[in-house]
Amino acid sequence: MSSKLNPTQREAIKYLGGPLLVLAGAGSGKTRVITHKLAYLIEECGYSPRNIAAITFTNKAANEMRERVGKIMNGRDAKGMTISTFHALGMQILREDGPLLGYKKQFSIFDSADTGKIISELLGSPDKQEIRTAQSVMSNWKAAFLTPEQAGSLAENEEQQRLALLYARYQETLRAYQSVDFDDLIRLPVELFKTHEEAHQRWQHRFRYLLIDEYQDTNDCQYQMMKLLAGPRAAVTVVGDDDQAIYAWRGASTANLQNLQNDYPQLRVIKLEQNYRSSQRILQSANHLIKNNTKLFEKNLWSEHGPGDPVRVFAAKDEENEAESVVLRLLAHKFENNTRFSDYAILYRSNHLSRVFEEQLRTHKVPYSVSGGTSFFDHAEIKDLTAYLRLIANPDDDPAFIRAITTPKRGIGNSTLEKLASYAGSRNVSLFEAAFESAMAHQLQPRQHEDLLTFCQFINRMQARAEKEPCNEVLNDLLSAIDYEAWLFDSHEPRQAENKWKNVQDFVGWMNRKSEADEKTMIAMTQLIALLNLLESRDQETDAVSLSTLHAAKGLEFGHVFLIGVEEGILPHERSEAPEQIEEERRLMYVGITRAQRSLQISYCTRRKRGKEFAGCDPSRFIAELPQADIVYTGVVTAGNAPAVTKEEGMDKLARLKAMLK
Ligand SMILES: Nc1ncnc2c1ncn2[C@@H]1O[C@H](COP(=O)(O)OP(=O)(O)OP(=O)(O)O)[C@@H](O)[C@H]1O
Ligand SMILES: [Mg+2]
């Protein structure tokens, strides 16, 4: 066992006497306990990697954990070990046992953009707010294991009745597409375990030890999944920090810490108190801030690190000015300290705040990667196109088939797809293959059958061409054949459609450039598409500044952090008003601060664009809650509760740097 572990951490790692909860503050080495325990179980206790599952919250965290374990085990074989998110584990279970619940093994997974589209069609309305409300209500019902019928009978008013009916039709549609949404990835395995004892036993047997990171953010469904997997043996270690619970809005509840105590009276609790991540002033700021929350568990985090740099707070004139200052400060800091881009993170409360920062980073040629937001390849229009490409490359890709055949609409409705899917399911073939089988001709109306075949033959023709013709020709012909531009403008507002069409053109340009050097054939295209998927997990390798929402930054650490948009209305969010909501916002701020190892800069704007007009903004109340002795205010401060500026510190240097960069 590595020497870099303190006695309490060692104790947590070696404890196998029953369920264990490690409850501790940020940066105290909880995740480290999990990674070392994984290695310990395999190397010293003789567990087979196959029999261990470690669950984290994001794919990024899972990747990082896999890397960390690899290092600890020095490359020794950890193959077969499950390190994933609850959702990925759910997917693994459904891939194997989905058929027991009537799902094809190659079911597709719909993200919220996909489900939003379905709901929009079912509602007959493109109203975003309405769609979002429906998504969140249904999601809560799913998390509470309510069927549409149960939701209907519990409905208290007409609105809820209406939503329950929508829920029923939504579920039917998902079924017809042989697809599941994110909630189903957790809900269905729980249903499987409750209804199929054989499968339940098998999975319990499979995972002889469970480790769960970020436990404070599990919701009821996930908790049930954990309990069912652990079974009576209860060989589990969970680690968490109630001060970092930031998913109450998604049904997570710190009550699960209490549930654990109730369900497992033999639960052992270990606390860690030394913080190894941040310098003193950063840690002080975090501790001081979180004291304003009512506490579930007292914590006393301390650190042996030196005081470090003061936490800097600065006010910007507006968003552009904030983004420019941050990027210039970052460059100046990097220049002086000889650091890497990957040592920096820019963190924010809401996704939309990243746009101006992306622009500035691009202007200054700073490499960056965005997580927790919409990356270019996640845009609906890009996913539409890649669905066609994936289908051309592999006609058996069912999710791609469904996306392509329904975008743009070509008269092939739910009932056709439903029949196709159920036939494909019964024969265990892909949707594409099923379309050509003679049985389909009898099951469908002649007109529907013809439309279906027309589509499939179109894909076949494109495939034949893609094998020998240059990529750009095939792509351009594809776009005009499906009349994608016209469809975009028909089904979106003009500005939105323009943006989307521009993205499509960027994408086509990118594909052409990439394929130019290659053979420009089908093979090249397939490889490019594989590359697209690689791009999604690329951020780890490259030296890039991380742009991330606070939610997605949980569990990660960075040398230098910029926390931006720290204003009333943003953090705390304007929709968070109730005291417990403010506390959750404060925990978000706490998560943000505690990501920083060596330096932390907090910024806010004194005015911000609201539609076409500028509106004044106030610094977040959380800034006033920081220990003022550890803070230096820089830049212009106009309104609000922050002390007046003492010096325009750093601005000279920035001006010089700016001149240099020009
Ligand atoms: N005993 C130790 N000696 C030296 N470094 C340590 C020790 N324990 C943890 N660390 C380091 O401290 C940092 C924080 O550890 P880790 O990420 O495991 O904390 P955490 O409790 O999971 O934090 P968070 O609550 O943010 O998820 C990491 O860089 C880790 O390598
Ligand atoms: Mg952690």
TrEMBL record:
Keyword flag Secreted: no
Quaternary data: Homodimer.
Source superkingdom: Bacteria
Pfam family, one: UvrD_C
Protein name (database record): ATP-dependent DNA helicase Rep
Source organism per UniProt: Sideroxydans lithotrophicus (strain ES-1)
Reaction(s) this enzyme catalyzes, per UniProt: Couples ATP hydrolysis with the unwinding of duplex DNA by translocating in the 3'-5' direction; ATP + H2O = ADP + phosphate + H(+)
Role according to the record: Rep helicase is a single-stranded DNA-dependent ATPase involved in DNA replication; it can initiate unwinding at a nick in the DNA. It binds to the single-stranded DNA and acts in a progressive fashion along the DNA in the 3' to 5' direction.
Domain UvrD-like helicase ATP-binding: 3-279
GO molecular-function term, one example from the UniProt record: 3'-5' DNA helicase activity
Lineage of the species this protein comes from: Bacteria, Pseudomonadati, Pseudomonadota, Betaproteobacteria, Nitrosomonadales
Keyword DNA-binding: yes
Binding site for ATP: A24, G25, A26, G27, S28, G29, K30, T31, R277
Gene Ontology CC: cytosol
Occurrences of domain UvrD-like helicase C-terminal (ranges): 280-555
Keywords, ordered alphabetically: ATP-binding, DNA replication, DNA-binding, Helicase, Hydrolase, Isomerase, Nucleotide-binding
The enzyme's E.C. designation: 5.6.2.4
Similarity annotation: Belongs to the helicase family. UvrD subfamily.
GO biological-process terms attached to the record: DNA replication; recombinational repair
